[in-house]
Amino acid sequence: MIPDAPRRPRMQHVTCTGTALAMALLPLVVVGALLAKALATDPMTPVNAMITSGGHRARISPSEWRRCRRSAAGALRRWKAAERR
What we know:
The protein has 85 residues and is mostly helical.
C-alpha cells in the first residue's frame, strides 16, 4: 500500500517549486521587456485611436449579445448548482 501524502507540503518543496518556476519564467519576462522596448510603442495608442475615430466602438450584433447572455446565464446556473452540492 502506498503511504498517504503529507497534508501540507514542506517548506523546502515550496521553495524549490517557486525557484524552478521563477527560473522558467524569468527568460520570458526578459524577452517580453526587450521586445516591448524594441517596438517602442505608445501606451496611449488605444486611447488615441478612440479619440480620432470619434469614440465609436465596433458594433456588436443583437444575436451576439443574446448568445453571450445565454452562455453567461448557463454558467451562473451551473456555478450555483455546484455550490449547492
